[in-house]
Amino acid sequence: MIKHIKSHSLLYLIALYLVVRLINLTIIPIFNDEAIYLDWGWRETHVPGFLFYSLYDGKTPLLMWLFGIAETILPDPLVAGRLVSVLAGACTLWGIYKISKSFLNSKIAYLSSVLYIFIPLFEIYDRQALMESSIAAIGVFSCYFALKLWSTDKQRYAYFLGIFLGLGILIKYSAVIFILAYLIISCLIWVRHRQNLIVKQAGIVFAMLFVTTFILIINSEFALSFSRGSRYSIFAEPLNSAIVGLFSNIGINLMISFFYLTPLIFLAGISGIILLKKEKNRMQFLLVTWIIACLVLQTLTIHNTSQRYLVPYLPLLVIPAAYTLYKLSIRWKHTLWIFLTLSLIIPVIFTYLLITNPPTYFFTMKKIDPNADMGFVTGQTSGIFNDGSDKLYRVNIWL
């Protein structure tokens, strides 16, 4: 029985993930950006001449096309769009498992997967018809294929990496951060080891161009849409504003990571990064360097960071967090489940609230963090409104 479970562990983890993500999938009313993206998806896949409609707002169209296809299959557009994000989150889980198992061990793969399933921040965005879940999946698999490329001479990993980076650009321009992280780390590898990566870079560029050129570059709005997306970049600000914004981003990102990953898991993640960097294992060192590079690049480049802008770059932190739990269990024998249970108490409670009573979760977080994002349950962006009393009412919003 145990052998059977181990041989099918990924399937059981994905099944658990789907149960947690699909229960009460529409309990949070439609968010305004969800309504916009679902409308764009329908137009782009059903109205002649609207295939690249989202480019006019600086948004690349791949995810809109997926939303449109899903809306064609399922009668409820909100369920259709959110199901796309749930499936993207399943890919993120799969990627986390593959990285952990390939470059660490099976126990850490199980631990990191379970942490990802129950962390409430990932629960929120894996259940929204937004871009963040898909970008997270792109980032995790880009990391996986980059690590495979750096550790082997197999050219096929360059093509796979290029395809995923290209798909990331077709989903959201913030995927550029993964391209920059890869280039920076590759340069460091070349400087330290003089490893020849020229042929591999050519394969990545070819695959990226293959994915993007024939879809977007032929469209006249592509170049303009890239410039429109720059309004979210800190580099579009004057120097003094950019410096102030940078320090603000650092503080906000630390608060988001600490409170919304939950404190124990965040601290375990930081500890795991330190422990892995001390290990004399090149691939583990490159893994944590990728994690740090993406987080630093997001902090340096984004204008007015928030949960939504940060969340695609956080999933890989569960791997060093799981590594910390694993090392603790080695030091104190037969205590792995104790450490795992302690680290999951708060995430499981908060995830349960998100599934059963989302306003309670968001108002609880508001008490902990004054800057908590309440847009999913209150205000003009949400399908819930407050009449001035403590009562919340759900609004029916028709697309």
C-alpha Rg (nearest Å): 21 Å
Largest sheet: 2 strands, antiparallel
Our count of helices gives: 19
Query: What is the 3D shape?
Result: globular
CA-to-CA gap between the ends?
Answer: 49 Å
Quick one: how many beta strands? 2
Please mark out the parts with pLDDT under 50 across 5 or more consecutive residues, or reply none: 387-393, 395-399
The tally of structural domains comes to 1
Mean pLDDT: 83
Strand content: under 5%
- Class derived from helix and strand content: mainly alpha
Q: What is the N-to-C order of secondary-structure elements (H for helix, E for strand)?
A: HHHHHHHHHHHHHHHHHHHEE
Please explain how this structure is put together.
It is built from 19 helices and 2 strands. The chain has 399 residues and is mainly α. The protein has one domain. Helix 5 packs parallel to helix 8. The N and C termini lie far apart (49 Å). The model is unreliable at 387-393 and 395-399 (pLDDT under 50).
List keywords for this structure.
single chain; about 400 residues; mainly alpha; two-stranded antiparallel sheet; 19 helices; disordered C terminus
How does the SSE layout of this entry go?
Blueprint: H1 2-7, H2 9-22, H3 32-46, H4 62-73, H5 77-103, H6 106-118, H7 120-125, H8 132-151, H9 156-171, H10 176-193, H11 198-217, H12 221-229, H13 239-260, H14 263-278, H15 282-301, H16 307-310, H17 318-331, H18 336-356, H19 358-368, E1 384-386, E2 392-394
Antiparallel strand pairs: 1-2
